[in-house]
Amino acid sequence: SQDGAGPSCVTPRALSITTEPQSPLEMNLCWNEIKKKSHSLRARLEAFSDHSGKLQVPLQEIIGWLGQKDEELSAQLPLRGDVVLVQQEKEMHAAFMEEVKSRGPYIYSVLESAQAFLSQHPFEELEEPASENKDVSPRHRIQNISRFVWKQANVASELWEKLTARCVDQHRHIEQTLEQLIEIKGAMEEFSTTLDQAESVCKTWEPIGDLFIDSLPEHIQSLKLFKEELSPVKDGIKVVNDLAHQLAISDVHLSMENSRTLEQINMRWKQLQTSVNERLKQLQDAHRDFGPGSQHFLSSSVQVPWERAISPNKVPYYINHQAQTTCWDHPKMTELYQALADLNNIKFSAYRTAMKLRRLQKALRLDMVTLATALEIFNEHNLQPSDRVMDVVEVIHCLTTLYERLEEERGILVNVPLCVDMSLNWLLNVFDSGRSGKMRALSFKTGIACLCGTEVKEKFQYLFSQVANTGGLCDQRHLGILLHEAIQVPRQLGEVAAFGGSNVEPSIRSCFRFSNGKPTIEASQFMEWTNLEPQSMVWLALLQRVTMAEQVKHQTKCSICRQFPIKGFRYRSLKQFNVDICQTCFLTGRASKGNKLHYPIMEYYTPTTSSENMRDFATTLKNKFRSKQYFSKHPQRGYLPVQSVLEADFSETPVSSPTLPHADTHSRIEHFASRLAEMESQNCSFFNDSLSPDDSL
């Protein structure tokens, strides 16, 4: 260095050796060496600067181009909510992606050159802040240039990846939006046509006042079918609105034309729904409210030669013009009672009652009504408090709503007039045999709750809630009212004697044993008592088991009639191995080769499991080693056979004229049933206060 700032060619060691002036030859050699190194360094710097300059310019150009394309891509959004416009956007974006794709090889080549450059000229991270000194060493210059190239390459690479990813996402967004718009457009065109047809049907409706009353049921049914045909439109419009909402969330708003069309479709659909609902309500109101007693629509429940007539207190009776007779019972109800007489050969009172109630339940279609639905109807008709009195018209209105709701919820066709008339007939037979035309709301709710298709536990909980106070407690008086109402159900079938008769005092005392000496009883204590299947209510629990057993098939053969498989209840002997009896043979007392049924037995109303089979096998094995004296001292508690011969004359519900009340008839039935109960008690005691909870069947 001529100015003394550069490196010296004289080493410190040389300086320490001598301080004498160097010779001219040594000075020339040193100077030539310095010039040679200086030229070499200058060449390297120029080559490095030239190479880095060739990279910086294209990298800066690429960064600018990518930024411009990113702005152009952003300018393509938001998409417009029209099929034609989105298709144009799709074509434009396809051309845009093609342009970006064509630029890709050049960008990759520049980035690869930058990578190669950086591999040849690596740099280190700055450990200390840069000095303010303007003089920078060549090494630091190289480091700075490499660092700058690295930063530019990173920016270009990130922008390129971001742009390509955005292109793919936007392409997917355009495709999805186009599909949704095409679906919305097609659906709106379809719904517009459907609404045009539906509105033309509405224009053909005649005023309610111009319709014949006999044609009202037909109009109601046709309007229900019309409403059902429109149900897919409701679901479809909801789907279209959801699609439009999803597009709005994606910042794609329907065009003015599409928005106007969708708004018109929604408005027309609401107007159509309102028109149909108002029309249906008007028809139903006219159907229910027309004529004295609002019972005109029930006249279709009978066929010629029968005619439905109404007494002054609104109670219906039936005229047979061919036989010139009248009776309180509906012709179909009379046929049903005659069919129930076939069950009198069942020798166990509780099973006989449950079987009869099951047939009655299915005939009235109450097995398809849930307790929850019934409670909704009760609340809609304000059947509170339970001690209020209902007349026949109120009962008819409530039953009509119940069966129409059943038809609506289950989606099945129900002969509403027939079901209403039959259910009214049964309720009057049970709770108003004198045909006064009045019954308590508690009686009505008890009858419906007992025969509805709900688990017995829920039935008991609901019945208890109807007589409990606001604190959920029930005293003896109100419990007696509930049990008296419930016992009327088997009483009407002539089966009351086997369940303690009409005297509910023993049942009240039995229940209040769970009250811990308190004057009131809680719902949990009442449920604990009912779980033991008390005498007065055992028929209700058995009704559920009969229902569950109907569809059950046991893969075994009856030892008496050889039926295979056994359907319904299955009875297994716990005294002899491999002895199974079907419900028909067991309940009718049929034996094989003069042998009596083998006791003790186990009843199954569901398919048996392997654990149950092992348990029964062990019990049978134990019983094999027990003597007759053991079984005589430990008799199995069960239902006793009923002498059906003595019962045959009064087991059917008698038919009488409207001028003859049923009170005398039911008194005679109860009298005969009491005599039968005395005969049964002489043979073997069954229900008594000494039974432990574990002795229930």
TrEMBL record:
Subcellular location: Cell membrane; Postsynapse
Major localisation: membrane
Gene coding for it: Drp2
Protein name as it appears in the record: DRP2 protein
Membrane topology summary: Peripheral membrane protein
Any GO molecular function: zinc ion binding
SUPFAM superfamilies: EF-hand (SSF47473), RING/U-box (SSF57850), Spectrin repeat (SSF46966), WW domain (SSF51045)
PANTHER family: DYSTROPHIN-RELATED PROTEIN 2, E3 UBIQUITIN-PROTEIN LIGASE KCMF1
Residues of the WW domain: 300-333
GO BP terms in the entry: synaptic signaling
InterPro entries for this protein: EF-hand-dom_pair (IPR011992), EF-hand_dom_typ1 (IPR015153), EF-hand_dom_typ2 (IPR015154), KCMF1/Dystrophin (IPR050774), Spectrin/alpha-actinin (IPR018159), Spectrin_repeat (IPR002017), WW_dom (IPR001202), WW_dom_sf (IPR036020)
Keyword flag Ion transport: no
Lineage: Eukaryota, Metazoa, Chordata, Craniata, Vertebrata
This protein's GO CC annotations: cytoplasm; plasma membrane; postsynapse
Domain ZZ-type: 553-609
SMART domains per the UniProt record, alphabetical: SPEC, WW, ZnF_ZZ
DNA damage keyword on record: no
Keywords: Cell membrane, Membrane, Metal-binding, Phosphoprotein, Repeat, Synapse, Zinc, Zinc-finger
